[in-house]
Specification:
single chain, alpha+beta, four-stranded antiparallel β-sheet, two-stranded antiparallel ribbon, 16% strand
Length: 286
């Protein structure tokens, strides 16, 4: 009589129950005996790391060319194992049951879904015609014919909440005036230097910057921080001809995909049933 049969006899269970228990035992045993073979490259406390997971991690690692591939693979796998061990410990400590974790998990899950939906949308957009590419390049000189590298002087500070101080900052004409306004308001700041590629500046902002007086600062808020920048010098870095075409195609397709996503979102909002707690409802449209 096998050990399992002895257990069944001792428990006094029916034949049907024996089958259910046997299946359960088999699943438990198979989970404990996972092996690093086939498509499984490692097993960490019973959890598999597959070749597909490792390859995805390697593709995101962007290791410099010339490094030994086996060494890079080994290092990346060890990082995955370390991450898996810490995640397992966090689970044991009950972190995944905390409200903060659940909120962040949902946000990350939604962000991933949206990014993959956007990528799929971009993959299905049609390729722009030669005329569309030419028109786009002409409408974005900061990305192509007139592209420049700007050397900047910057001041980084915490954005004030006082409306009067904000108004004074908006009226400044030099970076020194920005510094004096912040000093008078007892707001600490740091000075730094930076470079900016005009190709990454939003088109509407670029148009405003080009009409500003020389040396006039522009302030960009970043959360509760802000950076005031003044252009010290400009270096031409045009992109034209064959070099410009793939960049224009990629930018055009991103623009097309964004427009399609906006249209889809509008349609989804129009057809959705959204209910608010009274004090959280958006203001009525005028």
């Amino acid at each position: 009589m096998t050990a399992t049969q002895v257990i069944f006899k001792w428990l006094g269970v029916s034949v049907r129950s024996r089958i259910i228990i046997a299946v359960g035992l088999a699943l438990v045993i198979s989970g404990c005996n996972k092996k690093a073979e086939g498509q499984t490259v490692a097993v960490v406390n019973g959890e598999e790391i597959t070749a597909a997971e490792l390859n995805a991690e390697l593709s995101n690692a962007k290791a410099p060319p010339g490094l030994d591939k086996k060494d890079v693979r080994s290092r990346v796998l060890q990082q995955m194992i370390d991450r898996r061990l810490l995640a397992q410990q966090a689970t044991k400590d009950g972190v995944e049951k905390s409200p903060d974790f659940l909120n962040r998990e949902r946000r990350m899950h939604e962000d991933l879904l949206i990014s993959m939906l956007a990528a799929r949308q971009m993959d299905t957009t049609r390729l722009p015609s030669a005329q569309e590419i030419q028109r786009f390049q002409a409408s974005r000189p900061e990305m192509f014919a007139n592209r420049e590298q700007w050397n900047l002087e910057q001041i980084r500070f915490t954005m004030p909440t006082d409306a009067a101080v904000k108004s004074k900052l908006e009226a400044t004409k030099t970076l020194d005036e920005v510094a004096k306004t912040l000093t008078d308001a007892k707001i600490t700041f740091d000075r730094q230097r930076n470079r900016l590629d005009t190709a990454v500046i939003p088109h509407e902002l670029y148009a405003r910057l080009m009409t500003a007086d020389p040396g006039e600062p522009f302030i960009v808020p970043i959360g509760n921080l802000a950076i005031a920048s003044s252009i010290v010098s400009r270096e031409p870095a045009p992109i034209t001809g064959d070099q410009a075409q793939p960049i224009a195609v990629a930018a055009l397709r991103r623009t097309q995909a964004a427009k399609l996503m906006q249209d889809r979102l509008k349609a989804l909002r129009d057809s959705a049933k959204i209910e608010y707690k009274p004090e959280f409802a958006p203001p009525a449209k005028k």
